[in-house]
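Second attempt. The first submission of EF-hand domain-containing protein had a stray character pasted in from the spreadsheet, which I only caught after the job came back as garbage. Lesson logged: always re-copy from the clean sequence file. Corrected sequence (365 aa) follows.
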Amino acid sequence: MESTSVKKSGGNGQVLDGSDIMELVGNQEVFNNFVDHKFQELDRDRDGQLSVKELKPAVADIGAALGLPTQGSSPESDHIYSEVLNEFTHGKQERVSKTEFKEVLSDILLGMAAGLKRDPIVILRIDGEDLLEFINGASYETEMVSIFSLLQSPDMSLHDHILKALEKLSVDQGMPPASDSWVMSNIVEPALRDCFNGGDHDKPVSQDTFLVEFKKVAEGVAQRLKEQPVIVAHSGNTFDGSGIKRLLANKFEWEKTLNTVVEAIPKDRNGKVSKEYLRVALDAVAPSAALPPVGAVEEMDKVIGEVFKMMEADDGKLVKEDEFKKLLAEILGSIMLQLEGNPISISSNSVVHEPLAKNSSLLEP
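This time the job returned cleanly.
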């Protein structure tokens, strides 16, 4: 189940759920015009085909839309850029026709739209208003005492306690990610300097002192956010088993999904399947069951590991196809019960340093 109930700071919140992309690709006339314009823009030598060099700006735009750092920043992101380019050239073509360009671009955009539909991104403008509301609100003392009790250490100065506490606040309290280098150097550090310019770094750290001094620093942070608002891309999900419940309740959809998944799994000469493929099958079913891919969410991997251990699903034994299907359904049912009792919530917040309208210049006409 998607969760985008985060407060929209200052009343400015934009949800990117893939609907704009779906609308673009779904309207044949509009999409054809869009492709014509992009192709002409990229086809510098006007030969009716795109060379690898001419494709690179489109690949860079796709990378930006996927939230990747610029090419050359890291081997991991460079591998993804390379894979996107290979999608266009099929790994060997030196030139790409307009038809091929359109087909691959459509596939990539629809993939991005599906991802955004599954995990919408909320674009927040954080301008200090929500932070001021939090530090002057009824829950301030309770929440900050809780944070202080987690952080309290005789080895840390008051300055360090306040810094660590700011890192614990989220966009719900009106705080952009303090771990971002720009936020740290332009917002957090100046606010701390202003409050500790008298050399109070080593003040004894009592709870009362912490509450008073933290509020002063937070007011400084709010003032700087008012002068320099920060744009944050927020995404969040709560996995509560409801997606599994929907899938298993719809017999037709479940059978169709199950048959598609099992057909692709290797079988021995007697048509039996090794139980070692249960994790592969679960990963293939995950999108239909509103579950994250295996390895994406640590807490979810722990739940899956416990279920597999309880059901002895990792013993690698060979079973008949029907037994394999039954086991997969039981594994999903068990995961559903675990999540219904203890839902897993995850969120991610990243600072957007460039204006983000419809994901990037990729979607600009």
